[in-house]
């Protein structure tokens, strides 16, 4: 059987064993993208949801001899998560977290985001040891498999030194849980040859004094070059040896489905300092000096190129703008168990700083908001610096480690290599550990720069090895350093590495060419070209700076059904690359598929913006493409605009019909019937549809204080239809009631039935501009030329009007209600309230008002954590319901401990009410019920 036949048979069986298998070129390319400088497209992508699926896949891998790579979040930087064969992703499932009784051990399945593990530990005053810059995105499986450390954990608190036990699926189909005595006992019986090999390797090390010394010395500093062969020296029990061998094994020995880490104390009191020096040499000497102080638990270095790249970002201290060419910075942290102890530490630090040659007075702070902004810059430094690169250049990042006494020489080595090979590089890193990172951004299409990159890596590896440093400190060996493992370790230690790989994976089917590779040029193959995306609007050019780090993915509502923000960018880059090669057929096919995967299922919520260090708003891609895709519907949109009042009347009639059908068939059955119709492009009907709103809007009251009330078209169409929440008044009636209590007159625009905020026409710029001009003129007059506040009762519509009518006082209803709360006689109720914050309010930093109101109404208030955007996105809950369903899939678990949900969007409420047992209503209803 030839390879193609074998692979076809493999795919067929995989599809019967796993729920989510992707074959299309678009999805294979998109999922093949990671944060590294490599560009591999897998032949097949499997999104494994549980351990059973992994077992089935590995059985087929053995049967057909097909290579496989495991991936977590794809934040890896060294090519260890790339594949041109089969890529198995463990991101969507594997989300379980457990603590033991005193929270001294945390058990995480491999798909748990590391920051979420810390959230669970926070009430106990504890955290996990590893703290990589990607902690808000990286998964526990990836952190363990890379032996990740980070900014504060050094060596003593990394994955290797804090692991308690793990659960691993081996290539032969066996499962070992090193935290289970019976599992270990059975494994020792069934895998005698493997264990014999490991102990034979251990015995060889114990007999070789030079090798013992080498291993001990090399793991005193950060080192992820090769396997954790120190496990063979540090431990004598099978369980412990295997436990620690899998740390940093990068998926080359087996699939780690679960990890248990010993937790560490999270000191409550922290103080930080920003220290500036005039050159790299002075900074390096300061590092050696400060590293000797016990009070310093973190010390981060940033050179002038770093400071220059971040100086204009929001929240950055103004002093960065005063830094001259060559200036370098240290970010220092000290921790303590009491304010008194911290004060003592900082006093001692100030004394020590008197002996250092500082360029400015040190910035020292114990205010968390202030020093958190400093750390945010450091954590986002890689994508920020990468974003400043020239077009079509590739981001190459390396990390090295030196003994602290060699730190100055190591920093000078990197600087010298930059000069020799003509790169304007950036140097930063975890200086307290002697760990330095650097970034270069070569244009790999330029043969000279390509050869210079290759030569730099070779010379760097040779010289770092001679200094007894680590060519890879914490980013993992991957493909980047696989050819140089023997160079760093020598032939005897390298043979041990190879023997470990062979013992667990004799056929080299698990993540081939990672850590162990026979291809000495693998590090410079399949490098990203980073083509620029074509035809972006001018204000969206920032999108081309994306380095595909994946920081954005956590917030995206479509991440589990189609594409994430970085994948949308990556696919469009591939379209540009194919066009440049004149492969227009393949490029056009990608674009055609992209309409669904990148445009229709983008909620345009901009929540990716919140996590992106470069402030890239990927929603602009979908918004731009929607305009061109909808251009053919312009005549229809024009008719809708001219007959907007009739359109709304028709919509109300449709809601009434739906309500009637629901009474006949039942909510669930009607929704199921509509689900079938949706396959033929008919709207989907969610289970909890609201009632039709027939309330007549007329200006009321005659108080001195007045507001203009712009009621959104959706609130003119809908009113609540909730069984447990008895108030079925329209939202307008509720707002009028609150205004009456606060003695405020309500003025409705006389032509409100014909008015739209503009969002309905956002895909038709000419109509939207005409609508905006008319609406602004009407509101300008009614608000007495901007003197009266204009209150909008749907947060999405408020966002639209707020950004377009800057010279008018436009308020979201939640903000307005908070402003008048003091005029109401308000009592607290006994309901436990869960708050839904609309994504676009978060973008404007106005989402806190609804939570503030909820806290006026109850002592027990929570905020939805299971998603950042519900994915209903205006009408997408009707036309792309899978987006809303996916985004809210964990809401039913989160709502169990609450009595009522509050929101500020009637459309989002439809989705929220349909996918959980809790009732969600506008916050105004709760406020009115509890006030007189």
Automatic annotation (TrEMBL):
<protein>
    <recommendedName>
        <fullName>D-lactate dehydrogenase (cytochrome)</fullName>
        <ecNumber>1.1.2.4</ecNumber>
    </recommendedName>
</protein>
<feature type="domain" description="4Fe-4S ferredoxin-type">
    <location>
        <begin position="536"/>
        <end position="566"/>
    </location>
</feature>
<feature type="domain" description="FAD-binding PCMH-type">
    <location>
        <begin position="38"/>
        <end position="266"/>
    </location>
</feature>
<dbReference type="InterPro" id="IPR006094">
    <property type="entry name" value="Oxid_FAD_bind_N"/>
</dbReference>
<keyword id="KW-0285">Flavoprotein</keyword>
<keyword id="KW-0809">Transit peptide</keyword>
<keyword id="KW-0560">Oxidoreductase</keyword>
<dbReference type="Pfam" id="PF02913">
    <property type="entry name" value="FAD-oxidase_C"/>
</dbReference>
<dbReference type="InterPro" id="IPR016169">
    <property type="entry name" value="FAD-bd_PCMH_sub2"/>
</dbReference>
<dbReference type="InterPro" id="IPR036318">
    <property type="entry name" value="FAD-bd_PCMH-like_sf"/>
</dbReference>
<dbReference type="InterPro" id="IPR016166">
    <property type="entry name" value="FAD-bd_PCMH"/>
</dbReference>
<dbReference type="InterPro" id="IPR009051">
    <property type="entry name" value="Helical_ferredxn"/>
</dbReference>
<dbReference type="InterPro" id="IPR016164">
    <property type="entry name" value="FAD-linked_Oxase-like_C"/>
</dbReference>
<keyword id="KW-0411">Iron-sulfur</keyword>
<dbReference type="Pfam" id="PF13183">
    <property type="entry name" value="Fer4_8"/>
</dbReference>
<dbReference type="InterPro" id="IPR017900">
    <property type="entry name" value="4Fe4S_Fe_S_CS"/>
</dbReference>
<dbReference type="InterPro" id="IPR004113">
    <property type="entry name" value="FAD-bd_oxidored_4_C"/>
</dbReference>
<keyword id="KW-0175">Coiled coil</keyword>
<comment type="similarity">
    <text>Belongs to the FAD-binding oxidoreductase/transferase type 4 family.</text>
</comment>
<dbReference type="Pfam" id="PF01565">
    <property type="entry name" value="FAD_binding_4"/>
</dbReference>
<keyword id="KW-0408">Iron</keyword>
<keyword id="KW-0274">FAD</keyword>
<dbReference type="InterPro" id="IPR017896">
    <property type="entry name" value="4Fe4S_Fe-S-bd"/>
</dbReference>
<keyword id="KW-0479">Metal-binding</keyword>
<feature type="coiled-coil region">
    <location>
        <begin position="332"/>
        <end position="359"/>
    </location>
</feature>
<dbReference type="InterPro" id="IPR016171">
    <property type="entry name" value="Vanillyl_alc_oxidase_C-sub2"/>
</dbReference>
